[in-house]
Amino acid sequence: TRYEITQIIKKQEYIEKLAKTDSLTGLYNRIYLNEILSTLTDCHLALIDINRFHEINDFYGESIGDKVIKLFSEILKRKLNKKYMLFHLSGDNFIVLNRDIAKEVFLNDMIEINSFLNREILEIENKIFYLNTTISLSFDDPKNILSSVHLAKTHAKRNNLSFNIYTPDNPLEQEYK
């Protein structure tokens, strides 16, 4: 007896895609990021956070907030092209990952993207949004890189910085310890 397995394979591929991607943005999700980080020995990571995004959701509603996130992710995809992997963690947090580019090139690209994003104007349903972002970087060990990039973001937000690089002597890390 023969079976037509094409449909089964297509469904399996679809399920695998769902498990790795964010339904709103189509970007990779946190689960897939953790899976990738567990296999790496070296990488560069940037966390992009839209400042005061909760105010958009509070004032305009979540449907407008979702449209902002979706449009923002499309801008990131276009601007960062295929040399970077993009992830939507949750809410207004996005991750940029690279394991092949030199640290200096990654750093310069992230400075440039932050400058670009802070000048970008979004128009959604005849409403204008001037977004402001904070980008935090980490070059830490892949096992700790997510924690360290979040520490860098928290430190940046507390000190009104739009850009921050994690270092082991981060005062916040000392405070947490």
Structure description:
With 177 residues, the protein is α+β, with helices and mostly antiparallel strands. The chain is built from seven helices and seven strands; from the N terminus they run ααβααββαβββαβα. It has helices spanning 6-20, 30-37, 53-60, 62-80, 103-119, 145-158, 171-176, and strands at 44-50, 85-90, 93-98, 121-124, 127-130, 133-138, 163-165. The protein has a five-stranded mixed sheet, sandwiched between helices. It has a two-stranded antiparallel ribbon with strand order 4-5. Strand 6, helix 6 and strand 7 form a beta-alpha-beta unit. Helix 3 packs antiparallel against helix 4 (62-80). The chain starts with 5 loop residues before the first helix and ends with a helix. The relative contact order is 0.15.
Topology:
Blueprint: H1 6-20, H2 30-37, E1 44-50, H3 53-60, H4 62-80, E2 85-90, E3 93-98, H5 103-119, E4 121-124, E5 127-130, E6 133-138, H6 145-158, E7 163-165, H7 171-176
Parallel strand pairs: 6-7
Antiparallel strand pairs: 1-3, 1-6, 2-3, 4-5
Helix pairs in contact: 3-4
Q: Count of helices?
A: 7
Instruction: Choose one word for the global shape.
Output: globular
Main sheet makeup: 5 strands, mixed
Q: Report the sheet-strand fraction.
A: 15-25%
Can you tell me the residue ranges where pLDDT is under 50 for at least 5 consecutive residues?
Answer: none
